[in-house]
Amino acid sequence: MAYLQYQAKRHGMNEYLAFDTTPISSCSTLIKQAKYVKNKEGDHLPQINLALLYGEESMLPVYYRKLPGNITDVKIIENLIKDVNFIKLDKLKLVLDRGFYSEKNINDLMKHHHKFLIGTRISLKLVSSRLDSIREDFVTRYNYNSELKLYVMSFKEEWDYTEEKPRTGEIITDKKRIYLHFYYNDQKATDDKTRFNAMLDRLENNLVNGTPDPADEKLYQKYFTIHETPVRGKTYSFKEEAIRKAEKNYGYFALMTNGIKDPVEALRIYRLKDLIEKSFGNLKERLSMRRMSVASEENFEGKLFIQFIALQMVSYIKKQMDENGLFNKFTIQSLLDKLDTIEYYQQPGKAHHLSEITAKQCELYEFMGVNVPT
After folding, report:
1. Fewest CB within 10 angstroms: 184, 198, 260, 317, which?
2. Does the reported pTM lie above 0.85?
């Protein structure tokens, strides 16, 4: 934690930090927080969740913590707020995907005066009512943004803030300012339509073949009316109103924030959230952390810490390579291989010396912002 406190000091107060979680499978039954749950990656092993906070300007990981495998994203924010107080990040600026949305989480962030930018479901009452009021005039030239190549509208709204006093149980209510940014994407509308119809085709085919999947029960209830009679057997029909309700939101998405007025800036920052997905990829593939094989809880903690430091190094190298155009000539591995030929020699009681260092290797050290070894 002392290490994380030092790292937190290196990040500016104006930097937005992306926050997300990813499952890590465990081959050991000794890890208390590893739980058997339905794994996103289809891995039939117990898992823990790894939460990561990632700087969107520094492009470096700031903080991590492990969570039980059966904890959902929406329950994590309260403890995140406590943890960042410990590592002395006084004012958070968080970027979150819509899996973290809940009224409680928004109220908690506002209570501690943190800024946030979060994806929201179109079905939320606050979001859907505003969208319904502007839908007819949304997709017009006036709202087209040539920079984003999207249709954009933005509104200042009032959030119904509530806070419960811990000692007295008194409920405080207030109105807080938020911004809702709406976007419409023609290509997303086409993709949504294709994906939705493919799902309905799959459900219908399973009904016709008499092989409905129990996991799809809620979808059948939502989009189908199923009848069964002794004479005609089982028949079905589509719920047209439910289908039209889903179809009308093709192509739309929304962001909610209490800190960014400009919808273009909000989307730019939100898209940088992809950096954290790439960092999870680096952890699992480049740093071989898709499955953890450890013999004890202590070893597990140690491996997580070392992997976090390794992720910081890999992230820093990638950032420097991006800024200096080195990906035109190298991959991360080939750049490290280029420097790996430098040898360090030492004999007992004598000064060390290095093998030859070429001008090209010196240049790579400079690109990395690291002094050439002497």
Report:
1. 198
2. no
